[in-house]
Amino acid sequence: MSENRRFIPYDWFKLLIAIILLLIIIGLWITSPKGRSEAVAMTETENVEEVVAEPEAVEESQPTPESEESEAVEAEMELPPLPEAGEGLSYDAESGFLLDSKGNAIYELNEDGTGWLPVIPDDMAGMQLSSGDDGKWYLDGDKGEKYVWDAASNSWVAIPAEETEAEIEIPSLPEPSEGLSYDAESGFVLDAEGNALYELNEDGTGWVPVIPDEMASMQLVSEEDGSFYLSDGENAQYNWDAATHTWVKSADEEVATEEETTIKGDCDGVSPARLKAGEEAEIIRNLNFRSSPGIGNNWLATFRTGSRVKVLGEARCLPYADGAYRWWKIERADGTIGWSAEAPISETTYFIQPAE
User: Fold this and answer.
1) DSSP string across 145-160
2) Sheet containing 236-241: which strands, arranged edge to edge?
3) Is the pLDDT of residue 280 over 90?
């Protein structure tokens, strides 16, 4: 008996350890995913009769706070009337667009939510949206392209270039205008072969001849009578022939590279005088106008054919090369006083003649 009693505490100890291990195993099994799923399955099995008995309670859905808030927002939003010809359009609250029957975004709300704006396609995103006086919407591109919103078809329609040009007020084409046309893209007046002849002046009120690349270093000068010439700084080198719309080399009646000649009284070889002091004269060939008699660094301007001047004094003869020039002191229409030669050396043609 005494021998058995010694082992009793030891047996209780083993039993206690076994119970603790069993509880640990049960706890681990319950907390594992498999254990939880089986527990849920058991719970559902136990409640099957209750669910079947009350099917209506299961099918009824209770409104969530999120759905209630969404319905309240939609109820508070007052949309403006749909655009005219808005048949087939519907408002998509999630995107904020008016969609067509195919789901394409057609309109969107303006900033203050009081009206609709046409949606700009991605390929036109860089264009400027504007509203015209006619109530239509327009898109303007950097290269002059223009589109108008067609409310009937809910689409952007390109405006033909001819209509765009009609909106630009340009001056009348230079005469003779036959065969000339204005190219809005380049801003030039072109001939029938596409050559650029004229461009607008700075204020857009008139036309000036285009200077060819080989003459780009020359200075364009305009006269009061509307004529043009290209100057190298001293003399007119080319004159603009408005009749043919071309640059024509100036008549070389004087060479400006010579030093100014000394005034002498010897007039051997000079053409006979036809002008008289105090009378008016008419330029009949392009003629240089100088600040003093003689050829030198004294150029003021170039008279165009048809210009009128007033002869102020007696002529002065200055020998030049194998002959001489007869210089007359004259006054331009603007009051500028200077000198011009009457005729070439030893020729019967003249630069200037008495006005008729």
Assistant:
1) -EEEEETTTTEEEEPP
2) 219-222, 228-231, 236-241, 246-249
3) yes
- List the structure tokens of 109: 């709300």
Two structure tokens written together for 293: 């008699």
Q: Where are the alpha helices (DSSP H) in the chain?
A: 2-5, 8-31, 33-46, 48-53, 55-59, 65-76, 161-167
Q: Provide CB contacts within 8 A for 186, sequence distance 6+.
A: 196
Is the previous residue joined to 176 through a cis bond, with omega within 30 degrees of 0?
Answer: yes
What is the chain's Cα-based Rg? 50
339 SS3 class: strand
Q: How far apart are CA 252 and CA 35, in angstroms?
A: 115
91 beta partners: 98
pLDDT value of residue 166: 47
Q: What is the pTM of this model?
A: 0.32
262: DSSP letter: P
- pLDDT tens track for 76-126: 568 888 887 667 888 888 888 888 888 899 899 888 888 888 999 988 888
Query: What's the CA gap between 3 and 245, in Å, rounded?
Result: 142
**Token pair belonging to 74:** 């939609």
CB 303 within 8 A of CB 289: yes
How far is Cα 117 from Cα 120, in angstroms, rounded to an integer?
9
CA distance linking residue 137 with residue 127, whole number of Å: 12
Residue 209 has φ and ψ, to the nearest 5°, of -65, 145
Indicate the DSSP class of residue 195: -
Structure token pair of residue 200: 């607008």
Q: Is the dihedral of CA 254, 259, 341, 218 positive or negative?
A: positive
- Contact (CB, 8 A) for 200 and 207: yes
